[in-house]
Amino acid sequence: MFQVKNLHKSIQQKQILKDISFKLNAGEVTVVLGPSGSGKTTLMRTLAKLEPFDSGYIFLDDIPLKAVPASKIGMVFQGFSLFPHLTILENLTLAPIKAMELLKEEAVKKAMDLLEQFGLADKAAAVPGNLSGGQKQRVAMCRTLMMEPALLMMDEPTSALDPEMVKDVAEFIQTLRSKNRSMLIVSHELRLAQLCADRVFFMDEGILLDDLSKEDFFDPIHQKISKRGAKFLENYMAR
Ligand SMILES: Nc1ncnc2c1ncn2[C@@H]1O[C@H](COP(=O)(O)OP(=O)(O)O)[C@@H](O)[C@H]1O
Ligand SMILES: [Mg+2]
User: Fold this and answer.
1) Alpha-carbon distance 106 to 187, whole Å?
2) Sequence-ordered alpha helix ranges (H) in 25-178
3) Number of domains, the chain
4) Who surrounds ion ligand 2 at CB < 5 A?
5) What's the Cα-to-Cα distance from 187 to each of 56, 65, 81, 197, rounded to whole Å?
6) CATH number, domain with residue 76
7) Cα–Cα distance between 23 and 15 in angstroms, integer?
8) CB-ligand 1 contact for 146 (6 Å cutoff)
9) Which atom number of ligand 1 is nearest to the Cα of residue 34?
10) Residue 95: exposure state from Cβ atoms within 10 A (0-12, 13-18, ≥19)
11) Quick check: is 119 in a domain?
């Protein structure tokens, strides 16, 4: 279980994350919604140890974040950040060979198994420039899965893709479900949350206003959702 307690973070004296607390159960998919600038990416970067925080606690199975190996927390970035000059296979094996001291042949086998699983085996020798957006995203995910993370995070997985691909991304996320990991997905696409979330978080101005089951979040009579969460939903539906 991944646990965050009273997390505060500021950047240049501005409070970006304000007293954030939540738990993520293994096996669950949580989608984080919220307007642009509400702190979603900063939250992910902080959980991925890419950013320091001011106060609070973050634990993975009762181990404090700073003692958790970086490989246990995987994040797929907006734009995917694949190395353009390396082949797909090299993109997948580079970090595990370095960080996990995997033997090259073990890393290659693991990478080929993952590429196979995601329908990309024939792209192993290609470079990222020759792949479609959706394929690049799946490669970026394979690269993260190489490290066997207990927490898997994706920032705006649909933003670099065509809007019609939301459903494909949702299906892809379903295939990534595993009882051994939690998934946290930031999106501005309500439909993605409707299609694949177990839980929905709604953030606004650095505050986690809603932490609800999908059913409670999308409840048409807004019994449990915050006022601002309900407003966000209504604005989205009216688009
Ligand atoms: N490196 C930074 N320097 C200054 N301000 C930042 C930095 N990163 C994020 N912020 C500010 O933090 C707030 C939250 O940003 P972000 O986490 O990117 O929000 P979201 O992902 O929800 O759009 C914004 O007001 C943004 O301007
Ligand atoms: Mg963002």
Assistant:
1) 34
2) 40-47, 88-99, 104-117, 133-145, 166-176
3) 1
4) 41
5) 25, 24, 18, 11
6) 3.40.50.300
7) 22
8) no
9) 22
10) middle
11) no
Distance 112 CA to ligand 2 centre (A): 31
Taking the CA of 159 as reference, the closest ligand is 2
Ligand 1 geometric centre to CA of 160 (Å): 19
Task: Evaluate whether residue 89 is within a structural domain.
Answer: no
What tokens appear for 62 in the block?
A: 């009762």
Q: Is the pTM above the cut of 0.85?
A: yes
Q: Give the C-alpha distances (Å, rounded to integers) separating 234 from 36, 208, 210, 222, 228.
A: 16, 19, 15, 11, 10
Q: Which of 224, 168, 179, 218 is nearest to 197 (CA)?
A: 218
Closest CA relative to residue 170, chosen from 187, 151, 182: 187
> Is residue 2, in this structure, part of any structural domain at all?
no
Measured CA to CA, the distance from residue 205 to residue 7 in angstroms comes to: 14
Q: How far apart are CA 48 and CA 44, in angstroms?
A: 6
| pLDDT tens readout for residues 46-68 | 999 999 999 999 999 999 999 99
Residue 9 Cβ inside 6 Å of ligand 1? The answer reads no
Sign of CA dihedral 28, 29, 34, 39: positive
Nearest to 135 by CA among 169, 101, 107: 169
Does 6 reside within a domain? Answer: no
7 in Cβ contact with 58 (< 8 Å): yes
pLDDT mean over 33-43: 95
Count of residues in the chain: 239
Q: Which domain holds residue 170?
A: 12-82+147-238
* Segment 182-196 mean pLDDT: 92
